[in-house]
Amino acid sequence: MAAKQTNNKTTKIIYWVATILLALFILPGLFYLNSEMAKEGMLHIGAPARLGHLVGYGQPLGMLLILLPWTIARLKEWAYVGLGIIYLGALYAHLVVDGFVLMSFTPVITFALLLISYITWHKLTDTK
Questions:
Q1: For 74-105, how does the pLDDT look when each residue is reduced to its tens digit (9 = 90+)?
Q2: Which residue, among 70, 33, 84, has the nearest Cα to 54 in the 3D structure?
Q3: pTM of the model
Q4: Going by C-beta distance under 8 Å and a sequence separation of 6 or more, which residues neighbour residue 115?
Q5: Cβ atoms within 10 Å of 29's Cβ, excluding its own
Q6: 39, CA 20 to 30 Å: which among 47, 52, 63, 122?
């Protein structure tokens, strides 16, 4: 019993560290949503400006659903799915436009944090 409780505590720590790091990647983007750099970035990958707004507002909304502990599980699942699609789409867009350069793989970092958060969240909810 004590080993399971220690394992659960470790899982909670991993979940919160991954989720907070993910939030630290996402939330500052709200302040740069209409910046010239953001507009140039969307033009660089050939995406319309409206997509930038959708992603720019969708990421913090998804992160909010993930961070709030009382969020309905189904909404939290869809928030994880939506963020995963955004990061995989970003990886694809960067690889198509820029090729295999180091900066093209930055969405992989956020996707990895998202996966860690998702897997540990499921471990925590399965033990309840």
A1: 899 999 999 999 899 888 888 888 788 887 78
A2: 33
A3: 0.84
A4: 84
A5: 16
A6: 63
